[in-house]
Amino acid sequence: MLRIAIQSKGRLYEESMALLEEAGIKIPGGKRTLLVPARNFPVEVLFLRDDDIPESVASGVADVGIVGLNEVMEKRCPVGILKKLGFGKCRLSLAIPQNIDYQDRNWFSGKKIATSYPGILSDYLHKNGIVSDIHVITGSVEIAPGIRLADAIFDIVSSGSTLVSNRLKEVETVVESEAVLIGTDSISPEKRGILDELLFRFDSVQAADDKKYILMNVPQKKLNDVLSVLPGIKSPTVMPLADKEWCSVHTVLDEKCFWEIINRLKTAGAEGILVLDIEKMIL
Ligand code: ATP
Ligand code: MG
Predict the structure, then answer these.
(1) Which end of the chain is more exposed for a tag (fewer CB within 10 A), N or C?
(2) Secondary structure (DSSP) of 211-276
(3) EC (predicted)?
(4) DSSP-based three-state secondary structure for 173
(5) Whose CA is nearest to atom 12 of ligand 1?
């Protein structure tokens, strides 16, 4: 069995479970215990606080883990990033009170910075030759400047709304983070095989994530116009319809690209456009 550590509750829990499910791995719900074997795949899930995941993988308690890159960097554990997972996106940034006239990062020299990420912050300051006073607090870092506990903060930002409501502004982005699958080299050949299968399934889920399958009806005489709008790399399927004057065109598109070309497809003569989600794509 391959043991995979995931966050027991919190921001990464739902999407970690969803990823396993989309990869066809059924984790029984109901009574939640620390360690739950999957019903149909040689994997067991170890539910932990995210702080403990890097260490659990480094020490071999778990074989792999799903955790924020920010936690991996902060804990400085000897683990490798096997795969970026594309969810839990956020950044670690320095923020200061809005009313300060900020020129560059030298502003932080001699200042007191509150953070829950002293490791990443001290590396960053050291690299930039800045000496500051790092004040470690575990929760509600963003209120520190308001209560004069610190001059600035170094914290997780996603939308930035928490900063705004505390009258802070983001001035330096230090790390871009997302959920990652971590592991080590010291894994048995048997477990390696299970892991390879898991990675293959994750790849297939991810490949499908931002893709759409689109179908449309096109008059035969407009077919070339429509095909010229579709991105060149993909070769669409063209099928006859009962009405000889019409055909059906099917293709796979990036979701982003779809929104750009939808109006051009209509202008070119496509009708009855259907857009479907793709569950998996085997590359
Ligand atoms: P735990 O109880 O497991 O220790 P936690 O409170 O430390 O949980 P969460 O707030 O659940 O952690 O966040 C988990 C991870 O989600 C973060 O480490 C980060 O990688 C990611 N994340 C994404 N967006 C955000 C955000 N807006 N705020 C905080 N974390 C975020
Ligand atoms: Mg935590």
Answers:
(1) C
(2) EEEEEEEEEGGGHHHHHHHS-TTS--EEEE-SSTTEEEEEEEEEHHHHHHHHHHHHHHT-EEEEEE
(3) 2.4.2.17
(4) strand
(5) 10
**Phi first, then psi: what are they for 16, rounded to 5°?**
-65, -45
Residues 6+ apart with CB under 8 A from 248: 215, 216, 217, 218, 238, 239, 240, 241
From the CA of 31, how far away is ligand 2's center (Å)? 23
For residue 210, give Cα distances in angstroms to 68, 86, 276: 21, 11, 11
Domains of the chain: 2-88+178-208 (3.40.190.10), 90-176 (3.40.190.10), 210-277 (3.30.70.120)
pLDDT digits (tens, 9 = 90+) for 137-169: 999 999 999 999 999 999 999 999 999 999 999
51 CA from centroid of ligand 2 (Å): 5
